[in-house]
Design a protein that fits this description.
The chain is built from six helices and 19 strands. By secondary structure, the protein is an alpha/beta fold. The structure holds NADPH dihydro-nicotinamide-adenine-dinucleotide phosphate.
């Protein structure tokens, strides 16, 4: 039975950054990039231009950025497997990681499976329709694109993310319409007040988005009033879903402590989980920042935590 020093599960900025650090520490990491669960490279593979990743003054596309991360990880000796991990077993050490019925064993495991932004499953917003053609689930990633300039933009959701995204979009939009299914925001008071007082924001209470329309890009949205059930159609140049994220933790089968939404809980200022030698980084344990650069930073932390754990235990 071959025992790896480090297995990394997940291939966004956190996973690849962890791999770069672990590989440079000569730990020969094995990284599961995922396959059916989503493209290797994670959420950035579905974005276009990334303008806020430091080091790229002219911007870089999400896929190019992730390709660079991947190349850098491989250059230092990371072994990448383009498969999903189906299950893990942390009940005995070395830990077992199973992919397509093949068992792998490792002294340390770094979990960086990310989170998936939730999307409304409505006509016009699906893959192959207007998704990524004016429909997005990340205003910070996509909002500055020219197609959204001076347009009527619609943000769906009533939490802090929706408010933050709506306020962010006011920089570019003609007007930002926040569509919320209730008559009260879930967002924190300070954020809610900021939104309500913004001259470019229009809050549409008790409304559900039921359809997005347009020939090649978003041209209009249909909203249903949750009380009268009346449907109204509105001109629109963009739609942003901000209805929460789902951390990708199902494969853990409750072996790690999660918060009430499903994010992995780690010790403060570290990537350590309550299980010795198991670390979590990136969006799967970060409900707050969720940026490529913060994910990469926590991937680096996870690799350093794993390296120290191995040294402390006389392994590697
Ligand atoms: P939340 O779960 O807090 O909010 C999700 C929002 O989407 C809710 O208003 C919910 O409506 C709405 N929603 C959910 N499903 C649907 C649906 N199917 N149709 C229509 N609306 C829907 O998620 P967030 O991403 O906003 O925030 C997650 C966590 O991150 C929170 O703890 C938040 O405080 C934190 N955060 C903090 C920030 C900050 O401090 N700067 C920034 C961003 C997030 P309803 O209210 O009716 O349930």
């Amino acid at each position: 039975m071959e025992e790896r020093n480090v297995i990394i599960i997940g291939s966004g900025p956190a996973g690849y950054a962890a791999a770069i650090y672990a590989a440079r520490a000569n730990l020969k990491p094995l990284l599961f990039e995922g396959f059916y669960s989503g493209p290797a490279g994670g959420q950035l593979m579905t974005t276009t231009e990334v303008e806020n990743y430091p080091g790229f003054p002219e911007g870089i596309t999400g896929p190019d950025l992730m390709q660079n991360f991947r190349k850098q990880a491989i250059r230092f000796g990371t072994e990448c497997i383009t498969k999903d991990v189906d299950e893990v077993d942390f009940s005995s050490h070395p830990y077992k990681v199973v992919s397509q019925k093949i068992e792998y064993f490792a002294h340390t495991v770094i979990i960086s499976t990310g989170a998936t932004a939730k999307r409304l499953d409505i006509t016009g917003a699906r893959d192959g329709e207007l998704w990524q053609k004016g429909v997005s689930a990340c205003a910070v990633c996509d909002g500055a694109m020219p197609i959204f300039r001076d347009k009527e933009l619609f943000v769906v959701g009533g939490g802090d993310t929706a408010v933050e995204e709506a306020l962010f979009l006011t920089k570019y939009a003609k007007r930002v319409n926040l569509v919320h299914r209730r008559d009260e925001l879930r967002a924190s008071q300070i954020m809610a007040d900021r939104l309500k007082n913004h001259p470019k924001v229009n809050i549409l209470w008790n409304k559900e988005m039921v359809e997005v329309s347009g020939s090649t890009v978003v041209e209009s949205v249909s909203l249903k009033d949750t009380q009268s059930q009346e449907i109204s159609k509105h001109d629109a140049g963009g739609v942003f879903f901000a209805i929460g994220h789902s951390p990708n933790t199902a494969f853990l089968n409750n072996q790690l402590k999660l918060d009430n939404v499903g994010y992995i809980l780690t010790e403060a200022d570290s990537t350590r989980t309550p299980i010795e030698g198991v670390f979590a980084c990136g969006d799967v344990q970060d409900a707050i920042y969720r940026q490529a650069v913060s994910a990469a930073g926590s991937g680096c932390m996870a690799a350093l935590d794993a390296e120290r754990w191995l040294t402390h235990n006389g392994i590697g």
